[in-house]
Every structure is written in structure tokens, then in C-alpha cells.
Design brief:
The complex is a heterodimer of chains A (about 675) and B (about 500). Chain A has about 675 residues and is mainly alpha-helical. Chain A is about 75% helix and about 5% strand. Chain A has 26 helices and four strands. In chain A, helix 13 runs antiparallel to helix 14, helix 14 packs antiparallel against helix 16 and helix 16 runs antiparallel to helix 17. The chains are: A mainly alpha (about 675), B mainly alpha (about 500).
């Protein structure tokens, strides 16, 4: 085993060890030791990921096998790592954000009795996510995929005495499982047609199977590759919360805030985006699949963004904005702009983690209140949180020179030029989405940080925690909370400008992301790109900028200048508001159709099928009729030798049946 | 290769120990009886090690063969031998017996020695059925396993134990009597041989094959069990004591699948091929239909029992799609299901010992009082939901790959268990373990003691081992599976 291999193995294993130590020996070693050990191990991962990144920048890439998982016939299932520019980017994002979240947790969970358990979970999550992004085959990808799902399940339900939390985690797991079914079927088809699950082998085979067809229904022929891509994308829809499988993400906010930042904003939910980008050699061969991707992405980007406007819970606003931004990434994927999708994934990971952690800081400062209607004017009490939130918000709405600007602007430009079916609708969505994003983002910003202080309202009954603190006033959070905010704010400003040239116009993703020649004309040529500064300046004169600014203005007018206007407007648009508040009735439909339906079906099968038909009519019926015939047969019993065999069986049956019914 | 009669030892050591334990128990010497039972089961488990070490994974023929004349006039032989399939099942059986005896250590009912003795004798008989290469020997062992299980349910079972025990007994006996008829027919066809290996080369017209297939089906389908002959299982499980449930789920159900693999497929390849669509239909129905039924069960044990049926549906499916992944997956699923369902029944036993109820509604918030138990239970629940990294994933994954290869919609129907299985398992887990402490009884719970910890830890070890590194189990199967597939592909008309 050479040095590189050991280093690569160490990257996921380090947080795994940290998690195990904190989970198993947590109570023995105590809180401090638990967080120190887990943070140390995640730090090791981060540093090693950085080293790997620097070697990847120099052109190295590794595709190594770790061990043989199993053999089946002539198919070997191996566990291995594929480390190239795509995975090393993800590794660095995952380990860095995870490190920030680990540090933040020290402050956020300080009073929680499940402190060590929490560190155990987030470290194990880091392990699973790293395994996912580093995998070189579908089996391991699926392992990571499910493992992050389980840990997300455990973390959403972390406060397991809270009914809403344990409803939310079950929902999250099951909705994800719907996606996973698609994903697994896709993997099955890949194995059936390619004979291997290794990415490299599959990509080599892809052109060969691209003209094969598969009969699914009524002799209707489907291109195998389209079916595979659609199924894989269903998996991505579950994990990356695309409509209609998005319903779990807002509810996942029931979990502690650090994991909302880590799992439900920066890393796990982007696994679907990552996977599709990884599979670009497959998706590029199927126009139909790409169209489907872009349309689903556009729907998600537009319609989930709208929901963000009517939320009053600070975390839910950020959650819906995550959904909408995931939609943007999906749109980019559908437009064959995989590198831009990954670029947006990276910038989004930082500013969205920042926004979540800042929201968490506000929640601590507000004594665990999340309703924005009872906030306002928090700015002067929490200056650092305020400043970092503002940075995050500006990045989110794509304000020129902030990181989100570069990625979002690139997506919009690219979709504009894309010719794939559905790209017109997608362009409309992402454009309108800019206005909506800035509207809900600054609605949140104004409601929380500006305007009148509403936390001292008359009706407010101080909770015991507040009485202990002796004040109702918000307070700035401790340094362990603020440090990650500051460290995330820096990349939220600069990262876009730094990365845009190498990621989009350089050769960073060459040989990793494949774009078919037919789709390449939509890309900006490197010559047309005049550098980050010129792009930023130009950004002030574009339509998206205008839309973003109008969003801020509208939010300001409604929530600061004339708050009554918002009330009146809400009355006028009452039916729409109801539709939005009901989240387009997805949840109601699901619980009526799927949950109730499954229970009805189950009861029907059980009571009618098993209990009545099989047990009552058949099984006990046989016993009853056996007894009946046995009584007759007893009369014609002759005692002749050739009856012995028959009598043995019948006699035994009869005797035992009589015992069953207790009749003598 | 070993010269010692290792297979005889693995059959007779538990049985003889069982008889000794019975004798010790009669004189009210329960401590000695209990320890003898534990040591006996441990020796049984340790006897697997030399087989594991000396097993030749490249050998397509039977290994560790023993043969002696038993009943000369009928040409019945005491003929033993194992291949990869039987070896893994023997291993599973020995492990289960040891775990069950350890888990039942403080079982409060009377006649503890007789209880342990039943398990030991059962263990030996099951090993016999897995090792027998003579049809009559197989049949004798196969049938004899009914007796200790009947006793276990009938004597140490719950309130409705007599009904359940008789239902179990009659259901399975009816099927197996037909098998006896089929075996006698084969004896005539093969000119007086009861050798299973000779039957593998026996030519039979399709009509006869179908009839014999039907007879075998009556015995094996009930054992697995396949829908619609599954209704004895939930009743038996609910009434059986914890140990009984564990052995029933982990080991006894496997006899049915083993029968299909050892008898139906190689002896009746043409009938198997012909009737495969029917079997696949029944298997898929077992998976989907039973999944929905499990979803609405108010009784934890019944829920897991139904889930057992659904998981065994994967075994049937894997067997009858006739490709490497399917067959390999089916066998791995057999072993994994033994670990997982066994572990789940052990967990229910832990709860039942403390609360004396199996109603889900009586629980809630158990994690607050039993965090260590809750962690184990979570692992097993996830394994039951087929989480990668646990053994529950491996078999289902391989069967699904095989099914998709055969027909996309088979894969789709079977794959629905990904959602349904997770739904019933985790919903149950949520209602039992999560939430506020539901009532005073839950508030009085104490976490598992070190013996219970050891038992669950053993199960967890094997579940994770198999999930992370299944190659150490699949290595025994490559040649055997190839052999079996070649048998099925050659027509014997």
C-alpha cells in the first residue's frame, strides 16, 4: 500500500474514528474531550483534502481500489476511490463546512444533554459524505447515499421527544427512499447493460448502449440510456429535494440548526447535483433526460422560491431558499452546464451554511425563538451576526462581486443560450427567481434586523430560560459561534471571483466532466470572458441586477416603510397566499393519498386477504371439513389393512383439529 | 480435507448434549443443566471453525462426505456432505443456537433445562437436514425438526399457544407428507435409490416433474413461507417464546428455501423453469402484499413476523430468476435474514421481558430509558430496511440486480420494499422508541444488562461484518451457485 492510498483512506476514516470515539466513549471522556477529538479528526480530513486538492490542481488524479466487496459470477464489486477535480472540490467543501459546523456546535449545543451524541453524528455524517463523493463505483456511491440519509434521519430526529421532529425525520427518510428506489433501479439497469458498476467502465460502455432500446410498456421502446438517466435523476430528486420530492426538506428544519447548515444546505442535499455532474458522460447522451432535468429544476427554482415569501420561521425561509437554489443547480445540469452547477454548488455551500449558522445565532440570541414576527431591530444587539447575514444575503441574491453573483449570473447566461427543450421556461424561471430570491431574503433580513423591536410585545410571556437569563433582550452569541460565521463570510464574498476563471473557463474539469459537442456551443468561449472584475462591473447593468434590486426595494417598502401595505396586499391576494401557505397542498395530498392509502390497503389485505380468505375460509375451513368428513369416515371404518395409510393421515388431522377447537 | 466425521459431530454433539441436559434437568439441577447447554451450543459453534478453515471454495462437489449403510433392504444410507449453501446454513444454525441459549439464560418460566434441551436437539436436527444427502435421511431430519419446535411453542408459548402450535404443526406436516410420496416415487423411478445426488441426474418427463414439483412446493413453500400459505407464521411467532421466535425465523424458515435449492431446482429443472413465472408472481406478491400488511400491524412481533415473510419473498424471487446475482443474493439473504430477524426478535424479547406486552401502543419513548438498547434496535431496524453497510442490503441488492436483469418490472415491484420496508420498520421504531415517555411502565424500564449486551453485540457484529465485507461469505458460494445454475440449465426430459 503506497502513501497516497493511505492518505486517501485517512480522509474519510478520520472523522469515522472521531465519530465512533465520541459515540461509544462519549460519556466516559466527557464533553470537552469529545468535541476536541472530533474536531481534530475533521481538521485532519480538511488538511488532507487541501493537500489532495493541491495535487489535483497540478494535474494528478487517482482511481484506486481499496478492497473487493464481493464477487458475483464474473462481476466484481469493489470499494474504491476516484479522486479528481470534481471529487476533490467536493471533499474540500464537505470537510471545511463540516469543520466550521463542528466548531459552531460547541456553542450552539452547549446546554444540550445529547452533546456527545451530536458530535458523533456529525462526524459520522462527514465520513459518509466523503465516502459518497470519493467513490469510483455505483455500489459505494449508493452506500454513501444511504448512509448520509440515515444520519440525516438521526439528526432531524435528534430531539427525539419532540413529536414534530420524529415525524419530520420519518418523512425525510421515506421520501428519500422513493428517490433511492429510482436510483437503485438505475444502477440495476446499468449493471444489466454495462456489466460493471465502475464509473470508468460504465462511461466507456455508454456510447455503445446509447442506441439500444428497452421495452417497458405495451411495446413502447425506450432508449436504455434515457431510462437509466431518468432513474438516476429520480434518485437525485430525492436527495437534492426537487419537486415533487422536495417535501421533506422544509420539515427537516426540526433538527438542530448546525445540521441544517451542514446537511440540509451545504453538503448532503447537493449530493444529487454532484451525482448528475459525475454522470455527465451518461446524461450527455440523452436529450430527453436533460430536458426532464431542466424542467424539474426550473419548477423547483421558481415555485419553492415563492413559498419562501410566506414563511414566518426564520429557518424555513432559508430552507425554501435552499430548495430554490438547488433548482438553479439542476437547471444548470439540464443545460449541460455541469461545471457551472458545481460552481454554484460550491459558492452556495458557503453562503448558505453561513446564512443557516447566522440564523442559528439569531435563534440563540432570541432565546430559542424562531418566529420572525417577534424579532426586528436585532442589528444593534448582534452586530457580527448582522454583518455576516448581510454578506450571506447579498451573496444569495447575486449582488455583483459577491460569490453567488458569479455562479448565478453564469447559470442565467447559459440557460439563455441553451437550446434544449424546456430551456425557455427555465430561463423565465431563473430570471423571475432572482426577483423572488431577493424579495424573501430581504424580507427576512428586514424583519429580523431592521425596523421596530417586536420581541418585547405585550402578550409575550417570558419562558423559564429567559427568566434565568434575566433579560428579554437579544444578545450576541459567543465566539465559538461567531468564528465560523466570519470564516464562512470570507469565502462568501471572494470565492466566486477567485474560482470562476479556473472552474468555468480553465481546464480544471477537463476529462472529468463531459459535454457533447452538440451542447458546447452554448458555452462562453474563454476569450469572451474578460475576468472577474469586468464581469462584476458588467453585472450592475444587467436585467438580473435590476430584478434583484427591485426585490430589495419591494421588501423594504412592504416590511419597513409601509408595513400596513403588506397586510393589505396579503388580503387582496388571499387565495394565492393560502395556496402558498398550504405549500401547494403537496403535504395534504401525500398524507391523504400515500399515508392513509397505504394504511387502508394494508388493513384491507390483512383483514380480508389474510384473516378472512386464507385463515378463516381455507385453513380453518380445511380443519372444519376434515372434522366433518372424519366423522362420516368413522362410520365406514372397516379396519382393512389397505386403509391404514389413509387413516393415518386423516386420523392425525382429525385428532389435532379437535384439539384446536376444543370440541370433544 | 478433514478425516474426522466432522459433520456427524456437528449433528450429534448438540443432540447428545440436549439429552444430557434433559437428564440433568429432571433432577432439578438447573444450573448444571444450563451450563451444559451453553457449553454444548458453544462446542457446536466452534465445530464450524474447522469446516470454515478446511472448506475448499473451488470444489464443485460435496465436501466432508460421510457415508454408511443405514437400512440395507431399502438402500437407505447415512450419507452426509456439504457444499457452500449447506455450510453457511449450518454456520447460521450453530450461531443462532448459541445466541438463543445465551439470550434465554434468565428465561423465568419453569423447566428451563427442557427448554434448552429442545433448542439443542433442534439444532442438531436442523444441521442434519442441511447435511443429509440421502432423501430419507433428509426427510427424517426435516420432519423431526417439527417436534422440538412444536414443544417449544406448545409448552413455553403465550396465551393462545396450543392453537398456534397445532396450526404450525398441521400446516407444515400436510405439505411434507406429500414430499414423502414424491420421494418414494423418485425411489421407484431411480430403480431403488434414495441418493439426492443421483436424483440430480435422473431423467423425468415433464408431467412427472410438475407433479413432484407440486409435492415439494407443498412442503417448502409452507416452510419459507410464501404467500398464500404464510398465515401460520405470524401466529406461531406471536405465541412462541423469544428463543422460539428467533430460531423459527433465523433457521427453520431456511429449510424451505434449502429444499428448493437442494431438491426442486436440480432434480426438476424443466418444471422449475416452466413454473418459474408462477413462483416469481408468488414471491413478488409476498414482498408487496405482505409489506402492506406489516405496515398496519398493532403487535410488534406480528409486524416483524410479516416482515420476515416479505424478506423471504426476496429469497424465492432470487432462486427462481435463475441468474448468478439472483441465486447468490437469495442465499446471502437467507443468512442475513437469519441475523437480522433473529436480532429483531431478540430485541422484542428484551422489551417483552420488561413490559410483558407486545402492543406498539403500549410503548413510546423507550430511548429515554434504554439508550444502549435503542442504538442496537436502530441498527437492526435499519438492517431490516436494507441499509447498505448492513447484511440486509447485500442479499436484497443482489436479488434486485438479478431481477432487473430478468425483467425491469420484477425489479421495480421487488424494489418497492425499499419504501414499504423502511416505512413499516421505522414507523414501528418511531412509535416504540422515540417520543416522550408514554407511561409509568416505560418510565420504569432499565437498560440492557451485560448478558443482553453481549447477545445483541454478537448479532450486530455479524450484521455489519456481512454488510461491509460480504466476500468472506460469498466466497463459499461461487462454485456452488455455478453448479446449481448449470443443473437448472440442462434439460432432464
Amino acid at each position: 500500500m503506497n502513501m497516497t492510498k493511505i492518505l486517501l483512506i485517512a480522509i474519510p476514516i478520520a472523522p469515522f474514528l472521531g465519530g465512533c470515539i465520541s459515540g461509544i466513549f462519549g460519556n466516559m471522556i466527557g464533553r470537552k474531550a469529545s468535541h476536541r477529538i472530533t474536531i481534530l479528526f475533521v481538521l485532519i480530513s480538511t488538511i488532507l483534502s487541501g493537500l489532495v486538492m493541491s495535487s489535483v490542481i497540478e494535474g494528478e488524479s487517482h482511481n484506486i481500489s481499496i478492497y473487493l466487496w464481493s464477487l458475483s459470477g464474473d462481476i466484481s464489486f469493489e470499494i474504491g476511490f476516484l479522486v479528481d477535480s470534481l471529487s476533490s472540490t467536493m471533499m474540500l467543501v464537505v470537510s471545511f463546512v463540516s469543520l466550521m459546523v463542528h466548531i459552531y456546535t460547541i456553542g450552539y449545543m452547549a446546554e444540550d444533554p445529547g452533546y456527545q451524541r451530536f458530535f458523533c453524528y456529525i462526524s459520522l455524517f462527514t465520513f459518509a459524505m466523503l465516502v459518497l463523493v470519493m467513490s469510483n463505483n455505483f455500489l459505494q456511491l449508493f452506500f454513501g447515499w444511504e448512509a448520509v440519509g440515515v444520519i440525516s434521519y438521526l439528526l432531524i430526529g435528534f430531539w427525539h421527544n419532540k413529536p414534530s421532529a420524529i415525524d419530520a425525520n420519518l418523512k425525510a427518510f421515506l421520501v428519500n427512499r422513493v428517490g433511492d428506489l429510482g436510483f437503485l433501479l438505475g444502477i440495476g439497469l446499468i449493471l444489466a447493460y454495462c456489466g460493471t458498476l465502475d464509473f470508468k467502465g460504465v462511461f466507456e460502455m455508454a456510447p455503445e448502449i446509447s442506441n439500444q432500446n428497452l421495452v417497458l410498456l405495451n411495446n413502447l421502446e425506450w432508449s436504455v440510456l434515457t431510462v437509466i438517466c431518468l432513474l438516476l435523476f429520480v434518485g437525485a430528486m430525492g436527495k437534492s429535494a426537487q419537486v415533487p420530492l422536495h417535501v421533506w426538506l422544509p420539515d427537516s428544519m426540526e433538527g438542530p440548526t448546525p445540521i441544517s447548515a451542514l446537511i440540509h444546505a451545504a453538503t448532503m442535499v447537493t449530493a444529487g447535483i454532484f451525482m448528475v455532474a459525475r454522470m455527465s458522460p451518461l446524461f450527455e447522451l440523452s436529450e430527453a433526460a436533460l430536458s426532464f432535468v431542466i424542467i424539474i429544476g426550473a419548477i423547483t427554482a421558481l415555485f419553492t422560491g415563492l413559498l419562501g415569501i410566506v414563511q414566518n420561521d426564520i429557518k424555513r425561509v432559508v430552507a425554501y431558499s435552499t430548495l430554490s437554489q438547488l433548482g438553479y443547480m439542476t437547471v444548470a445540469l439540464g443545460a449541460s452546464a455541469y461545471s457551472i452547477a458545481i460552481f454554484h454548488l460550491v459558492t452556495h455551500a458557503f453562503f448558505k451554511a453561513l446564512l443557516f449558522l447566522a440564523a442559528g445565532s439569531v435563534i440563540i440570541g432570541m432565546h430559542h425563538k424562531q418566529d420572525m414576527n417577534s424579532m426586528g431591530g436585532v442589528r444593534k444587539y448582534m452586530p457580527v451576526t448582522w454583518a455576516t447575514t448581510l454578506i450571506g444575503s447579498l451573496a444569495l441574491i447575486g449582488f455583483p462581486f459577491f460569490s453567488g453573483f458569479y455562479s448565478k449570473e453564469s447559470i442565467i447566461e447559459h440557460v439563455y443560450r441553451s437550446e434544449i427543450l424546456g430551456s425557455n421556461f427555465a430561463y423565465f424561471s431563473v430570471l423571475v427567481g432572482v426577483f423572488i430570491t431577493s424579495l424573501y431574503t430581504f424580507r427576512m433580513y428586514f424583519l429580523v434586523f431592521e425596523g421596530k423591536e417586536r420581541f418585547g410585545a405585550k402578550k409575550h410571556i417570558p419562558s423559564s430560560a429567559e427568566l434565568q437569563n434575566g433579560s428579554k433582550k437579544p444578545h450576541e452569541s459567543s465566539m465559538v459561534v461567531l468564528l465560523p460565521l466570519i470564516l464562512l463570510a470570507i469565502p462568501s464574498i471572494f470565492l466566486g471571483a477567485v474560482l470562476i476563471e479556473p472552474m468555468l473557463y480553465g481546464d480544471f474539469f477537463e476529462d472529468v466532466i463531459f459535454v457533447s459537442p452538440a451542447h458546447q456551443n452554448t458555452f462562453n468561449s474563454p476569450n469572451a470572458f474578460g475576468g472577474w472584475y469586468e464581469m462584476g462591473v458588467h453585472g450592475f447593468m444587467t436585467l438580473p441586477f435590476l430584478l434583484a434590486i427591485s426585490g430589495i426595494v419591494v421588501a423594504w417598502v412592504f416590511y419597513i416603510k409601509f408595513p400596513r401595505l403588506a397586510v393589505i396586499f396579503k388580503k387582496i391576494t388571499h387565495p394565492i397566499v393560502i395556496l402558498l401557505e398550504e405549500k401547494y397542498y403537496f403535504d395534504r395530498f401525500n398524507s391523504w393519498f400515500f399515508v392513509k392509502g397505504a394504511k387502508k390497503l394494508g388493513l384491507g389485505f390483512w383483514k380480508i386477504g389474510d384473516v378472512f380468505l386464507i385463515d378463516n375460509l381455507l385453513v380453518n375451513g380445511v380443519a372444519r371439513s376434515a372434522r366433518f368428513f372424519a366423522l362420516i369416515l368413522r362410520k365406514i371404518q372397516t379396519g382393512m389393512i389397505y386403509h391404514y395409510a389413509l387413516m393415518m393421515v386423516l386420523g392425525l388431522t382429525m385428532l389435532l383439529s379437535i384439539w384446536v377447537f376444543g370440541v370433544v | 480435507m478433514l478425516d474426522y466425521s466432522i459433520l456427524s459431530l456437528i449433528i450429534w454433539v448438540p443432540i447428545v448434549t440436549g439429552v444430557i441436559v434433559l437428564a440433568l434437568g429432571a433432577s432439578d439441577n438447573s444450573a448444571a443443566g444450563k451450563w451444559t447447554a451453553l457449553i454444548g451450543s458453544l462446542v457446536g459453534l466452534l465445530l464450524v471453525i474447522p469446516i470454515w478453515v478446511f472448506f475448499d471454495t473451488t470444489e464443485p462437489l460435496m465436501q466432508f462426505e460421510e457415508s454408511a449403510l443405514w437400512i440395507e433392504t431399502l438402500n437407505i444410507n447415512y450419507h452426509l456432505g456439504i457444499d457452500g449453501i449447506s455450510f453457511l446454513l449450518v454456520f447460521l444454525n450453530c450461531l443462532t443456537t448459541f445466541v438463543v441459549i445465551l439470550a434465554s439464560w434468565e428465561f423465568v418460566a419453569e423447566k428451563i433445562c427442557q427448554y434448552f434441551a429442545s433448542f439443542l436437539i433442534l439444532s442438531g436436527l436442523v444441521n442434519g437436514a442441511f447435511c443429509a444427502l440421502d432423501a430419507i435421511l433428509f426427510y427424517v431430519f426435516f420432519e423431526a425438526t417439527l417436534i422440538p419446535m412444536f414443544v417449544i411453542i406448545g409448552v413455553w408459548g403465550g396465551y393462545n399457544r396450543v392453537y398456534a402450535a397445532l396450526k404450525f404443526f398441521l400446516y407444515t406436516l400436510t405439505g411434507s407428507l406429500l414430499t414423502l410420496v414424491a420421494l418414494i416415487f423418485l425411489y421407484r423411478e431411480s430403480n431403488g435409490s434414495f441418493s439426492l445426488l443421483e436424483y440430480h441426474n435422473l431423467r423425468l418427463p415433464i408431467f412427472q416433474q410438475v407433479l413432484i414439483f407440486g409435492a415439494f412446493f407443498a412442503a417448502f413453500a409452507v416452510k419459507i413461507p410464501i404467500w398464500p400459505v404464510h398465515t401460520w407464521l405470524p401466529d406461531a411467532h406471536v405465541e412462541a417464546p423469544t428463543g422460539g421466535s428467533v430460531v423459527l425465523a433465523a433457521v427453520l424458515l431456511k429449510l424451505g428455501a434449502y429444499g428448493f435449492l437442494r431438491l426442486s431446482l436440480p432434480i426438476l429443472p424443466d418444471a422449475s423453469q416452466m413454473l418459474a413465472p408462477v413462483m416469481i408472481f408468488l414471491a413478488l406478491t409476498s414482498i408487496v402484499y405482505i409489506g402492506f400488511i406489516a405496515f398496519v400491524q398493532p403487535d410488534i412481533k406480528k409486524l416483524i413476523a410479516y416482515s420476515s415473510v416479505a424478506h423471504m419473498g426476496f429469497v424465492t424471487l432470487g432462486i427462481f430468476i435463475f441468474n448468478v446475482n439472483g441465486l447468490m443474493g437469495a442465499i446471502i439473504q437467507l443468512i442475513s435474514h437469519g441475523f437480522v430477524s433473529g436480532a429483531l426478535f431478540l430485541c422484542i424479547g428484551v422489551l417483552y421481558d420488561r413490559m410483558h406486552t407486545r402492543e406498539i401502543a403500549d410503548y413510546g419513548g423507550v430511548v429515554n430509558k434504554m439508550p444502549i438498547f435503542a442504538s442496537f434496535f436502530m441498527l437492526f431496524a435499519m438492517a431490516n430496511a436494507g441499509l447498505p453497510g448492513t447484511s440486509g442490503f447485500v442479499g436484497e441488492f443482489l436479488v434486485l440486480l438479478g431481477a432487473i436483469n430478468a425483467n425491469f418490472w420484477f425489479g421495480f415491484a421487488a424494489g418497492s420494499t425499499l419504501i414499504i420496508g423502511a416505512a413499516y420498520t421505522l414507523w414501528m421504531y418511531k412509535r416504540v422508541v422515540f417520543g416522550e415517555i408514554a407511561n409509568a411502565k416505560v418510565a420504569g424500564l432499565v437498560d440492557i444488562n451485560s448478558r443482553e449486551f453481549l447477545v445483541l453485540f454478537l448479532a450486530a457484529t455479524f450484521i455489519i461484518w456481512m454488510g461491509v465485507y460480504p466476500a468472506s461469505f460469498t466466497q463459499f458460494l461461487h462454485v456452488t451457485v455455478d453448479q446449481l445454475l448449470s443443473h437448472v440449465s440442462i434439460s432432464k426430459l
